[in-house]
Amino acid sequence: MLLFGAVALSYSLLSKNVKIKILVYRTIILPIFFLYECEIWSLMLREESRLRVFENRVLSRIFGPKRDEVTGEWKKTHKGELNDLYCSPNIIWVTKLRTMRWEGGVSRMGEWKGVYRVSVGQSEGKRSLGRPRRRWEDNIKMDLQEVGCGGMGWIDLAHDRGSWLALVNAVTNLRFP
Q1: Model-level pTM?
Q2: Could you give the number of structural domains in the chain?
Q3: CA 90/CA 52 separation, integer angstroms
């Protein structure tokens, strides 16, 4: 994660104060307060949008308003400009990448482990009425479909550690040059 933000910290246009704030955000706030055990989250659209809003608020506070060179007025830094200045993956992709790494390990654990049974196994008993909630396994399938590996069985793919890590690294390089 630190490697992706190295571009933002090497900018000569950014002040030392902004660089320190970015470093604190990336090394303390994100890992401790927001990404702790994110591998097991089953994010829904509401949670994803809340995480994006949080990240945009923090980044807009770090980078502050910009002064328009033509009119001289101060204006709010917009989301696209924040993404260009920050140069790191957004919080949603960080959680998805961590989840992909962790799910590979879970699939290789074996059926006798409790984590494997909870994450992959079927629940017993009667299902409540209405639309079923999105499960962790459903998120995995959706993430693999976004990457272009949706047709494969993710458990079979994850059993081969080398190919799974190659897939995760390909996803990392695909999303964040």
Answers
A1: 0.72
A2: 1
A3: 8
